[in-house]
UniProtKB/TrEMBL annotation:
Pfam families: gpW
SUPFAM superfamilies registered for this protein in UniProt: Head-to-tail joining protein W, gpW (SSF64210)
UniProt cross-references to InterPro entries, sorted A to Z: GpW (IPR004174), GpW_sf (IPR036626)
GO biological process: viral life cycle
Name of protein: GpW protein
Amino acid sequence: MDLTVIRERLVHARDQYHKLMMGKATRVLVDQNGERIEYTAVSAASLLKYIRDLEAMLDAASRGGRAVGPLRFVW
């Protein structure tokens, strides 16, 4: 995936997470009977996981796709 696309998605996801944490991402529906239903579009935990995944993708892409793991010595 292109670095620009990952960055754009990350900025948008962080913005949505901020809105969710500030209580601005809730949706309120009032049906024909006057019943009020309030919900959030996504849970904070799943959104935070998505942000962490995007950050990992961005980090890997910026290093040229090379995975960095534990250092091992072979004798």
